[in-house]
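Work Package 3 (structural annotation) set out to generate three-dimensional models for the target panel prioritized at the project kickoff. During this period the team completed the workflow that converts sequence records into discrete structure tokens, so that structures can be stored uniformly alongside our sequence database. As a representative example, we reproduce one entry of 168 residues exactly as it appears in the project archive.
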Amino acid sequence: MLNRKLRRNDEGQVTIDYLMGITIFIVALFFIFQYSAGLFTPFQSNSDEVTLVADRVATSITEKEISAGNINTPNLIDGNKTNDYFKNQLNLLTSGYDTEVTNLGLQGRYHQYNLNVTLENLDNSSANIAAGKPLPTSGNIGQTKRIVLIEDTKTGITEKGILSVRVW
């Protein structure tokens, strides 16, 4: 008779059963929150591609085109070269922009990118300059920002700035 009572006790409220149920529920809830963020992102986006292109172009501009030539100080740019670069090589009114975009590798047979470069002077806000095509209102835009030192070659004074390169 004692065996019959033990066999018929099927309540299932053992501590281990309760603990396993709560653990499975929490793990399932974690996965739902973890993967639900991916539902709101677009399925096809090439913003990573244009961001990499923007980074490559920013490196080329900073280290080759407008560099002050001091290899001991990275991101040190020459103020005169910078003004010349923005006024002549990125000028939309002349062929300078098209030539520079081609030289930077942004115009190819299969891909063609547009370029916008902005230099924000952190020490002198009136010295901000921008060049290139105006930014579109929609689409994937890759952007890279670099903190640079702008050197005045005549006086040797350096100012801080942020060089923003946008590619789309």
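The mean pLDDT is 84.
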